[in-house]
Amino acid sequence: GNGLRYNWSERFSTKLSYEYAFRLPRQDEIFGDGQLIAQNLELRPENSHNLNLKLTYRSKEYVRIDWSLQTNFFVRQIDDLILLLVDANEFGSFRNVWSATSTGLEISGQIQNLFKGLSLSTNATYQDYRNTSDVGPFVQFRGDRIPNLPYLFANGSVEYRFDNIFKKEDRLSLFWNARFVN
User: The pTM is what?
Assistant: First the structure.
């Protein structure tokens, strides 16, 4: 893979990246778990072309409240996507979907020192996995969303930091994280 970053200004930058990746099946994907997931010794590795375009905007330096916003657009063209499929008896096995495409958008933001010691961050991702198989057992589902893959993720955190409590350079942080997967 390769990437190219261009800083339009001190505060705004873009990054374009591409990678050709392989993902080997995990042990449990090939051999199952001995209980509810059957083995599939014919499982092939995934391979994919991945393209990302990231935009970043930051606050001016030396301001009281430091903040940043980022967005990332992505496209992933996958051959032999590894997917857990479950039958009517609730037994499953990992199989390859011959071809799939994932497109999506990720947005994140951070605010540092909103008040003395208080920081906030949030992130949301939407992804759309679609079957694009022209041949094979999944051709009848061409264009359908791939099942059992989350399409919306979100998380957020709040942190309050206390500095120099007992001696100089000490730091105590209290934080709360929340996550959502749909």
Answer: 0.80
